[in-house]
Amino acid sequence: MTSGICPLCRARKELVSSHLIPRAMYDYCRAPDSEPVLVTTKVMMQTSRQLQHRLMCSSCEHSLNIGGEEWLLPLLATIDKTFPLLDLIETLPPEAVDGDDRIYAASRNPAIHVDRLLHFVMGVFWKASIHSWSGNSKEPLIELGPYGEKVRTFLRGETPFPKNMGLVIGVLPREKAVVSFSYPYRGLAKDCHNFIFYIPGVQVALNAGKRLPTGMPTFCFASHPLHPILVADLSSDVKSVFRGVIAKAHKSRRLVKYLRSHTM
Questions:
Q1: pLDDT digits (tens, 9 = 90+) for 122-142
Q2: Between helices 114-130 and 147-155, what is the axis angle to 10°?
Q3: Helices then strands (H, E): number in the chain?
């Protein structure tokens, strides 16, 4: 066992293996005849290797992953186009409609566990901001700057959701949901910092800064009393990110062989 200071509770405890993305997600995204495909900005390879590190104590690891994971994972989009989370969302009529885009109020829907969903996604962003998750780098995946400590105390239940931050939960239509996931990465917003990650059928965006987008108070899942969820076709955004990463990534020989065998 490894003893150290847990970065969440700040106590010296035995540290356990923490996952950036819950380990069950790897099996969830595994094709019947292959291992999951790992894509980073440096490499693309077929592997079951998971991003994990002895980072936190068992109680903090449980609070960040298991609590939200147990509820959310069975509800994500599947390869056969079922999408239980979207089924739950659509049991009530939308609050607003703009073309094909719809806004639903999670606060009106007792089947949606707002606190667990919020805690889970913010935990992923926070873990990406405190560790590199790579043996080749000491820099964290994302940089939350002065907001990092505010997110930590929020996750501990000591402070409310930080000011000057906005969180958008986007859910894709069933037929457009991509069954894959990405690690948190820096987005392209110019006036504020924004960070994004994707899990099957759900895209999560976190904005931070004093110049948040004008509409952020209306869409913020964390701070708006309706806890809005956007249902929209975000598939082009998701796919463009993966295409860009794949274009820059070195593809392992094993993966190239696999891809070739499945395109004949």
A1: 999 999 999 988 767 788 999
A2: 140
A3: 9, 13
